[in-house]
UniProtKB/TrEMBL annotation:
Annotated GO MF terms: ADP-ribose diphosphatase activity; metal ion binding; NAD binding; NADH pyrophosphatase activity
Pfam families reported for this sequence: NUDIX, Nudix_hydro
Gene3D superfamilies recorded: 3.40.630.30, Nucleoside Triphosphate Pyrophosphohydrolase
Residue ranges constituting the Nudix hydrolase domain according to the UniProt record: 177-307
Protein name, UniProt field: Nudix hydrolase domain-containing protein
Entry's family note: Belongs to the Nudix hydrolase family.
Keywords carried by this UniProt record: Hydrolase, Metal-binding
PROSITE patterns (alphabetical): NUDIX, NUDIX_BOX
Length: 349
């Protein structure tokens, strides 16, 4: 039951197609070296902190133009004035993403560079600024907040801050809004349901027999998360059949919304070996006995979920099956869930 996935609206908003990103991406920084008569065009491989997509980009100098010196061409004065601007990548929406791998090493240098960067980005007409500070740069956080940055989200290894430049309502996407959980309804040929008793649970469900549940991991499908959770908690191997139903609730954990997906799974083994760290006991329980539990009968959601699963077993209901698809709006293949009647499975699969 370890881990959780928050649906990251920020990453989704910044994650345009790879082709578009390659067309638009460019560094807002001076090149490390230049010839005597032209700016450097050395390509760098960068990593976008917000989009998490590697790309190859060309450095773009922060100068207003060239001047002719006594010995030939040289940089205009604007180059020296903006030499401390932080390395950053343009995003698709007129903003910048600061390169977390090229941050200054000291607090004094960072404070000066951040102030110079904001001044430069304002003059350049930029909008949103994404600043990712790794854990080993946590001393930079109060300096960024002092400049007007606000917390956006945090993971165990970094904090993401944002700054909205225009004098108008902020259009940056909000932090991830949901956590995603799954439950596995596993039933064998003897019409027995795989159930568990959790070691740690709310007093209202203490000692009750329930379905194996947990949070899905980052980049994990609903059905693979359900199969994994069942395996971790009970030791039973299963395969995904259908997505039966899902529940949407709000203000569940730290004011976040919650999505809970129920998957119908077919057992591939019978032997139970519990995860003693989280599970008190597990067993195969006759379906009727499971349905007659007070936890199921007295709770509208649990009763409805159980009724739906029973109707599916009686072939009076059909859930959603998983299908791999490719779209130009995605960076790669994704999964589309939809229902297919038995006689249409060959046509629509």
């Amino acid at each position: 039951m370890e881990g959780s996935l928050l649906v990251d609206s920020a990453a989704a908003s910044l994650g345009a197609t790879p082709a578009a990103r390659r067309r638009r991406a460019r560094f807002l920084s001076c090149p490390c070296s230049a010839s005597s008569d032209a700016p450097a065009t050395r390509a760098w491989t960068s990593y976008s902190s917000a989009c998490k997509m590697p790309r190859t980009v060309k450095p773009v100098s922060r100068v207003n133009g060239w001047r002719n010196g006594g010995n030939g061409h040289g940089w205009a004065t604007a180059r020296e004035e903006s030499s401390s601007v932080l390395e950053a990548l343009e995003d698709e929406y007129g903003g910048v993403v600061v390169d977390a791998h090229r941050l200054p090493s000291g607090t004094g240098e960072f404070a000066r560079s951040l102030a110079a960067s904001l001044s430069y980005w304002k003059s350049a007409g930029k909008k949103g600024v994404w600043l990712k500070l790794p854990l080993d740069r946590s001393e930079f956080i109060p300096l960024a907040v002092k400049e007007g940055f606000r917390y956006h989200h945090a993971e165990e290894s970094y904090l993401m801050l944002t700054y909205w430049i225009p004098d108008e309502p902020c259009l940056l996407p909000a932090n991830a809004s949901h956590q995603v959980g799954v439950g596995g309804f596993v039933i064998n040929d003897q019409m027995e349901v795989l159930v568990v008793q959790e070691k740690y649970s709310a007093s209202s469900s203490l000692g009750a027999w329930k379905l194996p549940t947990g949070f899905i991991h980052a980049s994990e499908e609903f059905f693979t998360g359900a199969v994994r959770e069942v395996k971790e908690e009970t030791g039973v191997d299963t395969e995904f059949m259908e997505l039966i139903a899902f529940r949407h609730a709000h203000n569940v954990a730290f004011q976040k919304s919650d999505l809970f997906f129920i998957c119908l799974l077919r057992p591939l083994s019978n032997e139970i070996k519990i995860d003693e760290a989280e599970i008190q006991a597990a067993k195969w329980m006759p379906l009727r006995e499971f349905m007659e539990q007070p936890l199921v009968q007295e709770d509208h959601m649990f009763r409805k979920i159980s009724d739906i699963c029973v109707q599916r077993l009686r072939r009076r209901y059909r859930g959603l099956t998983a299908h791999r698809v490719v779209s130009k709006f995605d960076a790669g293949a994704s999964t589309l869930y939809y229902s297919v009647a038995e006689h249409d499975r060959g046509y629509l699969s």
